[in-house]
Amino acid sequence: MKPSNVDSTAKFISRESEINLAVQKKYSRKDTGWRLFLKTIIARSYPRIVGQRREISWMVFDVIMPMLAVIAYVLVYRALNAPEEYIGFVVMGGAMTAFWMNILWSMSSQLYWEKEQGNLALYIMAPNSMMAILLGMALGGMLATAMRALAVTLLGVFLFGVTYTVSSYLQLFLVFMLAMVALYGMGMMMASAFLLFGREAWHMANLAQEPIFLASGFYFPIKSLPFWVAAGASVIPLTLGMDAMRQLVFPTGFQFGFLTVRLEILILAILSVVFIVTAKILLAHIEKLAVREGRITESRR
Amino acid sequence: MAAWLGWLIESNWTDPFLFAVYSIVKPISGAAILVIMYGIITQGNYNSALFPYIYLGNAFYIYVGAVMTGVSWAVVDDREHYKTLKYMYIAPIYIPLYLLGRGVARFITGSIAVFITIAAGLLFLNVKINFAEVDWLLFIVTLIVGVVMLALLGLLLAGITLTVARHEGFIGEATAGALYIFSGAVFPLDVLPEWSRPIGYFMPTTYWLELLRRSLVGNVAQAFPTLANFSNLEILGVLLGLSVLFGAVSIWVFRWCDARARELGLIDRTTNY
Fold first, then answer.
1. B180 contacts on A by Cβ (under 8 Å)
2. Among residues of chain B, what percentage have pLDDT more than 90?
3. Within a domain: residue A13?
4. What ipTM goes with this model?
5. CB distance from B4 to chain A under 8 Å?
6. What's the total number of domains in chain B?
């Protein structure tokens, strides 16, 4: 063998080894524990955020659809010569609609969709935590939906001249974050429950739209409902979240408040814990059923 | 047969009790939102002519979502969900009739929702209709013309849906949502910005809702200046004219879209969106 050939063979082997090493380093390390948990969250939230960029038209529809309802309700208030605060209430309700729709269709129904498409079995078989998958869905959904909610809010400002005067940024931030944690915790909990509904899941999600818009006061102050109805509706985190935010961003908002902002913050914090813990318990139950009976992952039962 | 198939698809996911609850709760909640909004602002003055205007407009608008969207949704359902549209196309049936038949089931469920909404309004929500003064002939003629018009509009949307891959689910909803605003379903057209009112005047649904309201509660017509200068017969004439125009356009659009979908092989395309 000529020296040049020996050199090139040695170089080739050396390069191959480097590639193998790189491949091994990159792909063969098995993360476990909290690393796997975090990576699963990021991996599941990634498509939700990136999907926005790949299908911009969805964003347009997701903004336009709630906006149509907002416009209709604003014009009803205008026809009734309602005070301007109500226009702001409707715009805020319309923006928060995006989160509720996301909870219904992209959290609660998601495991059902995954089952229909055959992904659920892979989720359960994979060595990651199902809780991390749901958290990833929640995180990605929350960030993506926040963009839509912001778009509706800005459209409300431009179309109807709604103005906001924040009385406490800290409380507003706290209310919003707690409402989101509680809401998405509720979505995680409902994801397991919806899986048990089978083909009724679609209808259940459909059913949970108008009644919730009504009970949670998306388009009017919740204080207008009888006390016990409003108290019952407070189980849905958006009810108290919106009530507190309306008190914090509109100068006369406190007149329409159902409870004090501090109390609403406390209740939202409790709801956050309750929903996330319940989600974990329900999920464990579902996983157990899936393993023991092998029925949950069946498509089109 | 298509209507029967549609009915089975609409109702067979659950037991009759849950289906009844589902059929009752949804429309009443939608109506109750408007009633509460109205009640808050007027401090419970339900005697104003605006209240039946809003309530009845909202109740009958259920037909728009049910019939129009129902016909076009059959394409999404059969192509994406059940993956049977291709079999329907090779079967010896007339596709537009099949799609319209699928819309009949939604018409039935829509009718139940409209009936329940109006009954709930009469019983619990302060809506007042004097049945002795109802113009039944006008009501029935208007209802039939409107439902046919909506079914043909649904055919138009079904045609567009055939040629669209990934946003088909939104087409019906977005159209129904836009018509809700421009038809003056829950507020008089005068509330709309001036530049957008002509859109409302061009929509047959505007005249359809106006006639339905007039046939049930006559005094509503005098309460709003929008169409106050037109008699019932004139409005019916406009409704018929616009229905024929939109119907002809719908049939032409459907035929064009249908031919294009066949040429491009879109009949059995599924996207999993």
1. 68, 72
2. 33
3. no
4. 0.86
5. no
6. 1
